């Protein structure tokens, strides 16, 4: 992989990770166009995902710290544990844990099979079309202002994230769509989707780091460093952009883009 390839793929990953257009799908199609067929390219994909993990941690740093503090307080003061359960951040942390479990289990159980389907650009393109259709249907959702994620909605959103393991199915698109259909407000839907991405991306990055240390990589360390850095910068910008779009209620607009890219991918690549 050349430095230029790393730059292009990293920026593409950073921009598309948090926009509901499937970053994995875009990377598969871009790799096909750039004629990058190294099996270890999946490792590069995970590392640029790690870059976007850095960006979401930066944006939601205060939320992450408050969640950790609420759990520490609950563990230290058992007698008032019920009080901590009533706090917003403790509740949010529990919802993130519940929402993470399905994707974590499926990801570990079917890791090899998931890697294989990343090599089929036609399948990926069809999934991008499916993402576009789901985003379009969110026009029918009627969120309630101020509604937040509960236990049931965290389970539903977690299952949606599990489906989004498939390349071409947007993780942010599907989780936010599920939240909107559960009548959660757009901004809260985006916030929860971003926070929910942290455990999954971190787990995948740790797994690939272990493989890199034990098996080495043909990609090279410079492209990986470039990939992490640029995807973090682009991811930060994408999060800020999407939050503004969610505030304006224009989420479904991304459906047209997904449908266009998916159809082009089916017939051209």
What features would you highlight for this structure?
mainly alpha; 78% helix; 0% strand
Outline of the structure:
This protein has one domain (3-268). 78% of the residues lie in helices and 0% in strands.
Question: What topology emerges from the helices and strands here?
Answer:
Blueprint (H helix, E strand, L loop, with lengths): L2 H16 L4 H11 L7 H19 L1 H16 L4 H5 L2 H22 L1 H7 L3 H17 L13 H13 L7 H11 L4 H30 L5 H27 L6 H15 L1
What does this structure look like?
- The chain is mostly helical.
- It has one domain (3-268).
- Helices cover 78% and strands 0% of the residues.
- The protein contains 13 helices and no strands.
- It has helices spanning 3-18, 23-33, 41-59, 61-76, 81-85, 88-109, 111-117, 121-137, 151-163, 171-181, 186-215, 221-247, 254-268.
- Helix 3 packs across helix 11.
- The radius of gyration is 18 Å and the shape is globular.
- The two termini are 20 Å apart.
